[in-house]
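Hi P.,

Sorry for the delay on this. The queue was packed all week, but I finally got your sequence through. Input first:
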Amino acid sequence: MKKYTVDVIIPTYKPDETFDRLMKRLQASSYPVSKILIMNTEARFFPDRGYEKLPGVEVIHLPKEEFDHGGTRDRAAMLCQSDLMLFITQDAVPADEKLVGNLVKAFTDETVQAAYARQLPNPDCRLLERYVRSFNYPAKSRVKSAADLDELGIKTFFCSNACAMYRRETYLELGGFEKKTIFNEDMIYAAKIIQSGGSIAYQADARAVHSHNYSCMEQLHRNFDLAVSQADHPEIFGTVKSESEGIRLVKQTAGWLVKQRKPWLIFELVMQSGFKYLGYLLGKRYKKLPGWLVRKLSMNQSYWKNPV
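Then the structure:
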C-alpha cells in the first residue's frame, strides 16, 4: 500500500476534556500524522495546556465573526501539504489508535476521493439517538458513486466532517468546501466528488465516538440550517429527494422500539421527528421568511450577520 502523508484539521470553540482525549488518541495513532492544525475560534477560550508546544501541532486563532463551517476548514486546507487531510471535530474521539490508518486504507482505491468514519454513541447517548447512529453508520463498509444515486438518493452524498478524510489534490481541483455556508459543507463537497465521477468510502472499521442528545428545539434549529444549505444549492440537492430517507428512518426506528419492548418511546420519536421536519420545511423556505424569524430559527446565528 502506498504510504500517504496525513494532516489533521480540528476546528475548536471552547474545547473541553473531550478535546483532550481526542488529542491523546491522535498522538497515539498507529499511523503517523504529519501535522495537527487546530483552527480555534476565540483565543481567550483556548485551554492553556501546552498544545502549541507539541511537535507537529499548530494553533491558529480567529475571531468568532470570521468562523464559517466551510470557509474556516478551507482556510486550514490551504495550509496543508500532505496527500490526505483528516477533518475531525473537537467532540469526536477516535475509538482506538487505528482510526487514521483505517481511513487511509480506503484510498488504495484510486477512485475514492473521500472517506468517512463510523460514528459510535457516547456512553450517555439516549436510546433513540443510539439507533440513529446505527442507521446512519452501519457495521458494513461501502463505496458510493454516481451509480448508486437511484438506490441511495441523497445518501449517496452523505459524508460527515465530524470525522472524514480527503485527497488533497482532488480537493484543490474541485475547489474544496464552500467558502461561505451555514452547514453541510461536507455533503456539498461530497456531491462535487460524485458528480465529477469520483467515489466516497464509508469505512466502518474506522471508528470515532461522537453523538449528541439534542432537545426537540435543538433538532429544529439543526434541521433548519441543514435545509437552508440545501435551498442554497439546488444544483445538488434539487436533483435528489431527501424526505423519503427521513420517513424510512422513522419507520425503522418505530419498528425497532417495538422489538425492544419500549413502545412508549414512539411518542418521543414522533415528537423529535416532527420538530426535525418542521425545521426542515421552514429552512427550505427561509427566503420567504422575515429576517428576525430566520435568525431565531437558526442554530448558527452569527452566519446571518453576513449571509451570502
